[in-house]
Amino acid sequence: MQMPRKGEKGFTLIELLIVVAIIGILAAIAIPQFGKYKARSAASAATATLKTCATQLSAAYAAGDTPDEHDSLTVTGGNTTWTWECPIGNETQDFVLSLANGTINAFTNEVYVVSAVNVRCSFSSPGIVECEPAN
Q1: Which of 41, 52, 57, 59 lies at a 20 to 30 A Cα distance from 26?
Q2: Residues 98, 104, 124, CA angle at the centre, nearest 5°?
Q3: Cα–Cα separations (whole angstroms), residue 61 to 10, 29, 101, 131
Q4: How many other CB atoms are there within 10 angstroms of residue 131's CB atom?
């Protein structure tokens, strides 16, 4: 290891402070953006999960399948409905299919916890699901 020569110097205190300030500014910009990206990705995951469940139920209905032990059939006023449980986050969402006309009824304005983020979702037939981060 060589000792520094008399004419050589290291960084000055001002230069080091400027570098630390720049890193602090970049961190102040990046950290809030990360939270927004995480919330948007949770909303996208919830949308994909709920759309998949609605598609599975529609496909099962079209194929003439019958409910298994996790689902239920209910007859109310001559209308038979098929209730399908869809797992989302740590919860489940019931999709209700009317066997008379094949329409799916589900939920409106429900809030789920997905990846530790609150996500608000709404469903409208035929199979349109929209989720966004809940404030």
Answers
A1: 41
A2: 150
A3: 74, 49, 10, 25
A4: 26
Nearest of 121, 126, 119 to residue 107 by alpha carbon: 121
Tell me how far CA of residue 109 lies from CA of 55, 101, 119, 132, in angstroms.
20, 24, 10, 10
SS3 41: helix
What string of DSSP letters covers 110-128?
Answer: EEEEETTEEEEEEEETTTE
Both structure tokens of 73: 């059939």
User: pLDDT tens digits, residue range 8-51?
Assistant: 678 899 999 999 999 999 999 999 899 899 999 989 988 888 88
Q: What is the pTM of this model?
A: 0.68
Residue among 87, 88, 91 nearest 42 (CA): 88
Q: Nearest CA to 110 among 59, 49, 41?
A: 49
